[in-house]
Write a structure and sequence with these properties.
71% of the residues lie in helices and 0% in strands. The protein is mostly helical and 433 residues long.
Length: 433
Amino acid sequence: MHRLSRLAEKVFVVLSLFFSTTALIPILIEKEETVGLSQDPYTPILFLGVYIVTLLLIIKRWKSFAYVAQKDIWIWLLTGIVLASVLWTVAPDLTLRRGVLLLGTTGFGVYLATRYTMREQLELLAWMFGLIILLSFVFAIALPSYGLMTFQEKGIHAGAWRGVITHKNTLGRLMNVSTIVFLLLCVDNSLSQQKYRWVPWVGFVLSAILIILSTSKTALVVLLTLITILPLYRALRGKYNQVIPSVLTVILVLGSIAVLLLDNLPVIATALGKDLTLTGRTDIWELMLELIWERPLLGYGFNAVWQSWDNDVTAYLWRTLEWECPYAHNGFMDLFAELGIIGLIVFSISYVTACIKGVMWLRMTKMVEGLWPLMYLTFLFLSNVTESTLVATNSIFWILYISIIFSTAVEYEQAKKYNYYLSLMQEEEGIIN
């Protein structure tokens, strides 16, 4: 019975993560005449159920949850700012609903860190991404009217793969995370003698193929960057006299590549099918900065900027841009606009602290999960330069950010205690001998 309940809990986690990617439900109910409108009554109900079940699971292990939850004050401070923004938001009802949902999303991330080790989380993510990969190939090949981009965005991306995800670029970002997960499992030495060692390689290759088929140029660049940077992070585990030359070498190589890219920017932009405004993104950013400086301290409220023509701020942006832009195409700028400089500073402190702890955890353990926090944090930064997936409700990107922060803190502390007791035992044995 106990084994069955543990299996049911894992199935619940995998399915919850699956739906947090915007998979399946939105594309099944999408119609051409309702594109761009909020016509999904099922997903909010689904996540209400997810958060109720999560709350029950938290109550069951409330002491462990409380122990883990107090490991990072910055996340709770940021969540508090989100909830408090209902006091000054330009969209009170929406900000309140989304703020409560963010609290639920954050709680689910902390629950993951409480219930599963980082290694177990990687395995659960592998199952979830495996499901997305399988269904994406099935839908794109057998049900192309669902699995391919067709009428979305006036058909400009027609033919690009989106699988069971709402948009080709979202599929590309998800497959970026999928490649990290499967690549880490591929290089895991503990799997060297296992019968199914080839499975993570299949997952990695299929994830990369889906990035290519999605035609997302940003996802492809991020993939190449992550593969390139993995050896650098592994080098951080070495002695300092070995790490410094490695870091300097990588900096010189990347610096040289950056210079070449900057010198040939027009040619490269043309080859990628882009322009030097990053397909109009710089125009959006310029307008956003003007808007931000009107309310720089606290912003316009959580999720209150990009909504509908009924929202005065959104209407102003859309009229000026002359098209219905869904977001700023920069996660940090969206966060700045919504929560002001205070919210941006709190998130930045949280992020930098997570990176520092990620390095400490990486040097503490030789296991493959030691690489996971830094790899994901790198992806999160890179993907939010031209997209917006930072502080988001019901989002796998926010769930993973939360689980990584709290898991790193807890597992680093446990490893530190273990190493301390191990050194004491070694000292005692030395004295006895």
